[in-house]
Amino acid sequence: MALLSVRNVTRRFGGIVAIDDVSLDVEKGQIVGLIGPNGAGKTTLFNVITRLYKPDAGELEFAGKSLLHTPPHRIVRRGIARTFQNVELFRTMTVLDNVLVGAHTRTKPFRSGAVRARAHEVLDYVGIADFANRPAAGLSFGTLKRVELARALVAEPQLLLLDEPAGGLNHAEVSELGTFIRKLRDDFDLTVLLVEHHMGLVMGIAERIHVLDFGRKIAEGSPDEVQRNTAVIEAYLGAEPAAA
Amino acid sequence: MTNFLQQIVSGLASGGIYGSLALAIVIIHRSTGVINFAQGEMATLSAFVCWTLVDHGWSFWPAFAATLVLSFAAGAALQAIVIRPLQSGPLLGIVILTIGLLIAINGLTTWIWGGAAKQFAGPFSTSPINVGGVAFSKQDIGVIVVSVIVVALVGLLFTRTKLGLGLRAAAVNPVEARLVGVRVAAMLAVGWGLAAALGAVAGVMAAPSLFLEPNMMQTVLLYSFAAAVLGGMDSPVGAVVGGLVLGVLLNLSGTYVHWIGGELRLATALAVILGVLLLRPSGLFGRAAVRRV
Predict the structure, then answer these.
(1) Could you say which of B163, B176, B179 has the minimum Cβ distance to residue A109?
(2) Distance spanning both ends of chain B, measured CA to CA
């Protein structure tokens, strides 16, 4: 049984159909890529899964139970954590406090010692232990992305949603990131759903890829299958003009 | 020299009251951007509740504790029932609502307790205490001690507890806070409750020296605004420091600058607001708001 199952989900904004009847399954333990040109609806789908947006139609199931009756602040407790394309942090708070907020659902009201220790461990794991007591505002984009990742990890999710983790990274960093996401999956026993524009990264680490275009799912399969799919090639490069 | 020290201590005592109320204003402003104009009247109402309990034979400290609990509950309920429905609308709507609350609560206290000033015997005697040859009022010392304890407890709450972390997260980035599992709506109610309880401390501490009547906190509220602006509208530490600095400043200028005296106290506070807004709008401890356009 799939860990996350999106079935026939539609979300409109006024007259625009941002996601149109999309279905996809994410199997436990897999790294799954979600790709598509700009405006294809990838981030919207993330926002629907984390309940920031209500779907207009369709069903979402996580670990066999519907997500649609779970309010946004309970999503993390159910086991889904995410990062954002443009990094959403508590900017005036320290890096450590940001991570502690991430552990909010795993913290008992008056015993924060263990959580603090765990937060430091995770900061060390993502390689920013030295920044623990610095305010988030003013740190470099790459560091902030790691803070966000640490904050997601301390929530002990089963499913991690990564929204463009490679954004703003240089070539060497991207290949490092690929190895890191795999290691992350193994060390934390995660399932990863990944929105990414960097094709090298997605094709390198994803076991399964779903392709969106204009809100519709146009293909799914292994990286090889998707790369050979004509609909996908058209979506990215444009259709060949019909013979005049 | 004796007079100078006495003026400083009594300035710190009023400053503790201004600081507590300013802290209440800042807590609400930080989380929602709203200036709560009803904060002073809420504090007066709390002081009346405490007075009534004492009048019914309670001793002071249990009455004080009960007042804090009741004020917290009432503040949280006020947010949940009256403020929350307006939250999606413009900020100005809520600000005007708080002005309405100011009038309503003032009317309520006048209706229940009447407009006549009541004597509120506080927990501290008015007799002097001798420290190093200088006589200080026990009342002043008591108010300072209570303010310091309360502010320290609030500080610990914000920095050391899960609730405090949730409150801060909800204030800084509500959408994101909700995603990491913070119940933002509950946090806003708790913030109002906390502010109401802080106001209760200010009201009950102010009542013995001001005479308890429905308009008691109106000038105190203006001083607290001045304190909050001086410290920085978004800085809890600034609110408390601003309150203490303002209390001492007003006392010293009233005593040593003959043309200010007692009459121009309020004008001095307003001059502080004006001066800070002109020279350093973000206050002593505030962060300048930078917005990317």
Answers:
(1) B163
(2) 54
Q: Does B44 reside within a domain?
A: yes
Query: Span B192-200, mean pLDDT?
Result: 96
Say what the pLDDT of residue A159 is. 96
DSSP state of B248: H
CB contact set of B166 (below 8 Å; sequence gap of 6+): A101, A104, B177, B182, B183, B187
Q: Is residue B288's pLDDT more than 70?
A: no
Domain that holds residue B142: 21-215
The pLDDT of residue A110 is 61
Each residue's pLDDT tens digit, B97-134: 999 999 999 999 999 999 899 988 888 887 888 887 78
A76 vs B169, B172, B181: nearest CB: B181
pLDDT of residue A244: 46
Q: Are B49 and B113 in contact (CB under 8 A)?
A: no
Domain with CATH 3.40.50.300 in chain A: 1-79+157-244
Q: Residues in chain A whose beta carbon is closer than 8 A to a beta carbon of chain B?
A: 50, 52, 72-77, 81-82, 84, 88-93, 97, 100-102, 104-105, 107-110, 112, 151, 155
Largest CA distance in chain B: 60
The reply to whether B121 falls in a domain is: yes
B138, B208 contact by CB (below 8 A): no
* ipTM of the complex as predicted: 0.79
Percent of chain B topping pLDDT 70? 98
Which residues of A fall within a CB distance of 8 Å from B179? 50, 52, 72-73, 75-76, 82, 88
**What average pLDDT values come out for chain A (244 residues) when binned by 10 residues?**
91 90 93 90 91 91 92 90 88 91 79 83 93 90 91 94 88 88 94 91 93 91 89 78 53
Task: Specify the CATH class of A1-79+157-244 in words.
Answer: alpha beta
Count of the separate structural domains present in chain B: 1
- State how far residue B45 is from chain A, nearest Cα, in angstroms: 31
- How many angstroms separate the CA atoms of A128 and A119, rounded? 11
Residue B43, domain member (yes or no): yes
For the stretch B105-133, what's the b/e string if a residue is b when 16 or more beta carbons lie within 10 angstroms of its beta carbon?
A: bbeebeeebeeeebebebbbeeeeeeeee
Domain-located, residue B112:
yes
Please give, rounded to a whole number of angstroms, the shortest distance from the CA of A83 to a CA of chain B. Answer: 10
**Residue whose entry in the numeric block shows the structure tokens 């609110």:** B239
From the list B105, B109, B99, B107, the residue with the least C-alpha distance to B37 is B99
Cβ distance B83 to B192 under 8 Å?
Answer: yes
The reported pLDDT for the residue numbered A172 is: 84
Distance CA A140, CA A163 (A): 18
